[in-house]
Amino acid sequence: MKACIRGAAIVMTVISTLVALGACGQNAEDNSDTGNTLRIGVLLPDSTTARWETQDRRLLQKRITELCDDCAVENANAKGDVAIQQEQMDSMLTKGVDAIILVAVDARSMRPAVRKADQAGVPVIAYDRLAEGPIAGYASFDGEEVGRLQGRALLTAMGDRAPDDQIVMMNGDPTDPNAVSFKKGALSVLQGRVKIGEAYDTLQWRTETAHMNMSAAIAALGVENIDGVYAANDGLAAGCISSLKANKVAPLPPVTGQDAELGAVRRIVGGDQYMTVYKPFAPEASAGAAMAVAAARNESLDRVAKGEVTPRGGHTVPAVLLTPVSVTVDTIEDTLIDDGVYTVEQICTPQLEAACERAGLT
Predict the structure, then answer these.
(1) Using CA of residue 77, residue 78, residue 80, residue 85, what is the dihedral sign?
(2) What is the distance between the alpha carbons of residues 115 and 313, in angstroms, rounded to a whole number?
(3) Fewest Cβ atoms nearer than 10 Å: which of 109, 235, 287, 329?
(4) Helix axes of 177-190 and 143-158: crossing angle, nearest 10 degrees
(5) CB atoms < 10 A from the CB of 160, how many?
């Protein structure tokens, strides 16, 4: 029955190729002939990284309903557990969703689930992380550029130093294709410029694991021999900084980050963290939502996505790859505040009042 409906939808799409993506009302009426409302599943990976629940879920929901006021959204969070996410994918297929937005806990382990969705005629849009298998599209940021921004910022913060000055690399989860891209981009900038004293891959991006690994690096290298820390995201930066402080490292070496979490922005203002990478969530969510709505209607994604990617175990698919932005204390106002991500009041707690005044955040 679903295959028949999808076949009819393809015919309607060919007839209505000049209809804009935002004209959802007419498309919803076309679907109403079958008695079906379009349903889109959103599968998020965890609650460890704050952005998924505080930013992406809300923005995806908002944009989907803007594009298609008759669309229903099914949400789920895997809490960092691959088995749970596989079950959630099965549940979405059982419910008869028309498209799925997936942030994979583990790209490789979710590949059979992606294949199962494809066989069921349900397109999967990989969101932020490039899932493996026959996905229909991809919305994210240029991961290697994220790493390059982090690497350049770290070198800037360290100043004119000799190549034998040491850094610690706290990379992300190696099962996350994004983490691989971040690492590749960072190494393209850092190798030959500094000595990498210790490097770690951090399973599930856990803050507490980063803390433990940073403590091991301090023990191996010595308190005085760490001149910078490459942390792949803000959660890892928090773990590294807490470990440095617990081991009485002072002054703190510059530490990178990513995701522009509120806690990280406060650490930047306070001087504990040097930078973060801001990936504007609204454009990413808008692209992911638009691709999911188009895919659910069996429309071409080429109107939304101008780029291409080839996932492992899949074919070349349309992609939206956005540009990340480096944020330091000097650029918080021009980026995060001007974009409405945070207000000065949210950033500047009473404890940070003096630091905010120095940074011009008043």
Answers:
(1) negative
(2) 9
(3) 109
(4) 40
(5) 5
CB atoms within 10 A of CB 344: 14
Please give the Cα distance from 226 to 223 (Å, whole number). Answer: 7
Phi, psi of 353 (to 5 degrees): -55, -50
Structure tokens at 28: 């919803």
Question: Which residues are CB-contacts of 205 (< 8 A; sequence separation ≥ 6)?
Answer: 46, 48, 49, 172, 173, 176, 179, 232, 233, 235, 236
Coil, strand or helix: which one is 183? helix
**195 phi and psi, to 5 degrees?**
-90, 130
CA angle 265, 266, 267 (to 5 degrees): 90
What tens-digit pLDDT sequence spans the chain (362 residues)?
444 334 333 333 333 332 333 333 333 333 333 346 899 999 999 988 888 998 999 999 999 999 998 899 999 999 999 999 999 999 999 999 999 999 999 999 999 999 999 999 999 999 999 999 999 999 999 999 999 999 999 999 999 666 779 999 999 999 888 999 999 999 999 999 999 999 999 998 999 999 999 999 999 999 999 999 999 999 999 999 999 999 999 999 999 999 999 999 999 999 999 999 999 999 999 999 999 999 999 999 998 999 999 998 889 999 999 999 999 999 999 999 999 999 999 999 999 999 999 999 98
Give the Cα separation of 299 and 13 in Å (integer): 6
In degrees and rounded to multiples of 5, residue 302 shows phi and psi of -65, -25
The token duo for 228 is: 């910078």
Phi-psi region of 36 (alpha: psi -120 to 50; beta: other; left: phi over 0): beta
Amino acid at 313: G
Six-digit token pair at 97?
A: 């969703």
